[in-house]
Amino acid sequence: MRGLQKDLAELVSRDSVKTDPEDLFAYQSDATHYFAKRKPDAVVLPASTEEVAAVLSYANKNQIPVTPRGAGSGLSGGCTPVKGGIVLDMKRMNKIREINRGNMTATVDAGVVLGDFHKTVESQGLFYPPDPQSMTVCTIGGNVATRAGGPRGVKYGTTPHYVLGVEAVLPDGYVIQAGGKCVKQSVGYDITHLLAGSEGTLGVITKAHLRIMPLPPFHRTALVTCKSIENAAEMIAEIIAAGTVPAMLELLMGISVHVMNSMISPPAPTDGEAYLLMDIDGSESQVREDAETLKAICNDMGAMEVRVIEDEKEAATYWKARASLYPLALTMAKKVVAEDVTVPRDKVPVFVREVQAMAGRLGLLVGLSGHAGDGNMHPSILYGEVNEEQEKLARKAIAQIVKTGLALGGTISGEHGIGLHKSEYLEWDLGGAQIELMKRVKKAFDPNGIMNPGKLWLQGGE
Amino acid sequence: MRGLQKDLAELVSRDSVKTDPEDLFAYQSDATHYFAKRKPDAVVLPASTEEVAAVLSYANKNQIPVTPRGAGSGLSGGCTPVKGGIVLDMKRMNKIREINRGNMTATVDAGVVLGDFHKTVESQGLFYPPDPQSMTVCTIGGNVATRAGGPRGVKYGTTPHYVLGVEAVLPDGYVIQAGGKCVKQSVGYDITHLLAGSEGTLGVITKAHLRIMPLPPFHRTALVTCKSIENAAEMIAEIIAAGTVPAMLELLMGISVHVMNSMISPPAPTDGEAYLLMDIDGSESQVREDAETLKAICNDMGAMEVRVIEDEKEAATYWKARASLYPLALTMAKKVVAEDVTVPRDKVPVFVREVQAMAGRLGLLVGLSGHAGDGNMHPSILYGEVNEEQEKLARKAIAQIVKTGLALGGTISGEHGIGLHKSEYLEWDLGGAQIELMKRVKKAFDPNGIMNPGKLWLQGGE
């Protein structure tokens, strides 16, 4: 592939092209290393929209696969290149272009790291809610491409709710401006939200216009200790129905709090089977009022303890530990596969019961933590050993989790996306006619099929 | 067209097909009667998704144009049939299928009248914010198809923010379930939001899954009298930047309040050149606090008067009059063309100044009321006479309004959609490459081009 390297070096600056074996190795998968499929032939780190356009136009003419990549922190294999070709690492395009308080919008390059953006807007008293737990590394372009969520989704919604427009490069090299900086728009097809969640299969997002908000001035964290996970799940349904929605409403199993305690100071109580961890935000008077309401609901439903944490530093250790739950789980299990099923919120209790029963039947350790306030559950298969038998059991469990979610009117992914991990279940969720429609939409954007091939649906047809 | 009538009567119940000339006449346009183009050959009022599928499948085989229609209250000619064929009037499909408090969602048929849905959810202490001013007649299917907004958009966003999923019939008769009842989803392309705003050109929406909220318990209406329209526009930008966002934040010209006074009791003061009309909602303590903040901002910026209306019946007359502004304008002008340009919110003052100057130069009466809190302005051309010269001037003014909005980073439609009215300006907003992309997307859904032909973009290419 010396020709490829030479060609690319003419399109972008020479040090933006990587073809050394160790570089290519680092780009062969996202955080789901177990999906590693085929090393790319080259990695390009473009510095501008024009460079992205030049690379795509070249790849399109030469029918070379292109896999766009943010931070590679995905959990579905979305940026794992399965047919080699070019990986387009967007991290050099990392400028915050504008923060406009008078319009309450910001414009950012696709490669801006979410955590950096949070810090910048928060230093100005502003707020951008989406908070996938990989926020210290993940990029906003990746967030848009996967419709990323996070704990604050329960009150504030996920990334697509904040995307007003994108700049994107189509496979033929054309640059389009979809949507824009206006908070309302009805101008033809919503290309912005079609690109959101397309996982790099339609084009490359190079910029995003985002809605921002005033930063809520006051917060309190509350920890509810529950005697059983069903009890915790029932409290969630009751909280949603009562309408006092916290900014975050996480369901944690006892074992999760146990591993999180290595980061929580002073440690949380460990006598519950499950916990609700909440962040309540707003004006001080509103937060205090909401905290009382939530406390009353949980106590009425038999909570063992409801603790409102007044010390902000202590509260922060809870949220830092929560954001680290996936890496923490990896310290106690040989392998962790995090599921991402979402169910209607009133169905969380029955979902929890059925998954627990299934785990018991299969003799598997399945964590059941998740952003349960919006019905988004992350059942995690924790492997004691990695061997063929365990993999077989895990696959059985995943299929069963997915089926259980769908039977309850749920969906196979809330915020991780489909990538490779979920493509075999896509038809269960959407039906054949909708997948055929998606394939035709894909063709409308990418007639040569160069964009992130092998993703979303099972291969064979496109 | 006797054959058509006979064929259709075999697909749906006989009384669901209308072909009498007076019936067809009533379906030849939406509320923009001046776009009336060509009477349909038949009107069908389907009673079920299956009937919609049967009609589409038949029309697709026989290449007969199909124009879906909600209440026909649109202001862009979106459901005006330009090539005859079948108009599909969805109003018989009007069941509210589910209101689920535990999940905070509702499922409705496309033909449910928005005002009826408001009443139903509000009677249960629930809230569905979108409020296009035609809400007593318009249908939720029509709202979704045009991404309809309304005054509450400033705080709560527009229809697409509340649509979690749709059932839709594709032109080939296949029924798809896009999205669903979950508040988070990342499962392939967002077909739900591609259908939202597609104005009936991709398929027929038959059901919608909607997010609902708890009903805010307390409201206050405030009227701010301003010495000039620029002063009013500047206050809006300041209110947005301060972050205390009312549920509604309307800009009204003196002349608008003058005509609205026939419905406001007791009448509003008429000594301002412009007014801000606000609704502030939330808990009582929050509303009182916000009202003080907003009052202070407006007073600091030189408001002539800030009046918080304590009497709820009196307040209601303001909002009823506001919702009637378009028909009220028709009592004082021979013809009214309502524009729908949206600009970034910090650009509202300069937009207002430029449109006023342009109206002065052309000697035209241009109303400048609108949902200015979200940058969505409805400059209205008020015709003293309807004649060729006036039409020419009006066309010039509309083009100028659109250009002014775009030059400020705005967009040609905030909530009315493109239909026929804006198709000539679409390329100014989106550029040629994006329109070509939209045409390919259209083909992916509707290869025979039967769905609402002649809309969105200028014809010739599809």
TrEMBL record, chains A, B:
Name of the protein in its database record = Lactate dehydrogenase, LdhA
Gene Ontology terms for molecular function:
FAD binding; oxidoreductase activity
PROSITE patterns, A to Z: FAD_PCMH
Q: Which residues form the FAD-binding PCMH-type domain?
A: 36-215
Q: Which UniProt keywords apply?
A: FAD, Flavoprotein, Oxidoreductase
Pfam families cross-referenced by the UniProt entry: FAD-oxidase_C, FAD_binding_4
Entry's SUPFAM superfamilies? Answer: FAD-binding/transporter-associated domain-like (SSF56176), FAD-linked oxidases, C-terminal domain (SSF55103)
Entry-linked InterPro entries: FAD-bd_oxidored_4_C (IPR004113), FAD-bd_PCMH (IPR016166), FAD-bd_PCMH-like_sf (IPR036318), FAD-bd_PCMH_sub2 (IPR016169), FAD-linked_Oxase-like_C (IPR016164), FAD-linked_OxidoTrans_Type4 (IPR051914), Oxid_FAD_bind_N (IPR006094), Vanillyl_alc_oxidase_C-sub2 (IPR016171)
Similarity comment: Belongs to the FAD-binding oxidoreductase/transferase type 4 family.
Q: What cofactors does this protein use?
A: FAD
